[in-house]
Design brief:
With 239 residues, this protein is an alpha+beta fold. It contains seven helices and ten strands. The chain folds into two domains: 3-75, OB fold (Dihydrolipoamide Acetyltransferase, E2P) (Beta Barrel); 80-238, Recombination protein O, C-terminal domain (de novo design (two linked rop proteins)). The strands form two sheets. Strands 1, 2, 3, 4, 5 and 6 form a six-stranded antiparallel beta sheet that branches. A four-stranded antiparallel beta sheet has the order 8-7-10-9. The radius of gyration is 18 Å and the shape is globular.
């Protein structure tokens, strides 16, 4: 048995058969854990598995090298606004996909888990979530110990090394140099109160560059670069 009770955040799911799927969840104690889920015949019972759903499992068991199973699962807290508001849903899908495609299985990241749970509460209860994904990702970068010290010399930040370079910024799948002003903003965000994030003033190009830079920063130090498909939907909804 892993634990008699285990809280987790759903970050992804893949079909296993017509009547089951493998759900990836992020936990405080064990990091990312794949869970075998047998689908219920009543469709409403399966709605609990949406991205960033906060759930609690009872009697979780896992064999070496295999998937975890459980006896019972139930939702922790509410997700009414998250499921009804397309903007909140888009943010949930985006953050969940970043987590699924950036974190290796079985690596505990307690501080990242705490950031994610705090983000879930804000996603459900905050009046404006337009910049929540920036807030959560910047705090995850900090929680992972990746955030560099401030450097106002105008140097670019190399996302793979975390060092400042006296070179022209260029962000692509083969060049990881982030503009100094965007790097400085990333450094400042974790110290901001979320209520003030509504005043974050960036044009569409800079929003995209900063957001994808933070994704790259996390991925380069963990699972390697992978495309985040839900980004285009997120950008469309908030444009």
């Amino acid at each position: 048995m892993i634990a008699p009770s285990l809280k987790a955040v759903v970050i992804g799911a893949n079909p296993y058969s017509d009547s089951s799927k493998i759900v990836k969840v992020f936990t405080h104690e064990y990091g990312v854990v794949p869970i075998f889920v047998r689908l219920q015949k009543k469709g409403g019972a399966n709605a609990i598995w949406h991205p960033l759903s906060f759930v609690e499992f009872t009697d979780v068991r896992k064999k070496d090298g295999g998937m975890a199973t459980y006896k019972k699962v139930e939702r922790v807290g509410k997700a009414i606004a998250t499921l009804k508001d397309p903007k909140r849903t888009a943010v949930a899908f985006f953050i969940a996909e970043v987590m699924e495609k950036s974190l290796a299985e079985g690596v505990p990241l307690e501080e990242v888990y705490s950031v994610l749970v705090d983000g879930l509460e804000k996603l459900e209860d905050s009046g404006n979530v337009a910049n929540l994904h920036f807030y959560v990702l910047a705090r995850i970068v900090e929680a992972m110990g990746l955030m560099p010290e401030e450097n106002t010399s105008g140097y670019s930040l190399h996302l793979e090394t975390g060092e400042w370079h006296d070179a022209s910024p260029m962000l692509s799948r083969t060049s990881y140099l982030l503009r100094n002003d965007l790097a400085q903003l990333m450094i400042k965000i974790p110290g901001m109160e979320f209520d003030t994030m509504g005043g974050l003033s960036l044009n569409q190009k800079d929003r995209k560059e900063l957001l994808l830079a933070m994704v790259m920063f996390i991925q380069l130090h963990h699972a390697g670069l992978r495309e985040i498909k839900s980004y285009e939907v997120l950008e469309t909804i908030f444009s």
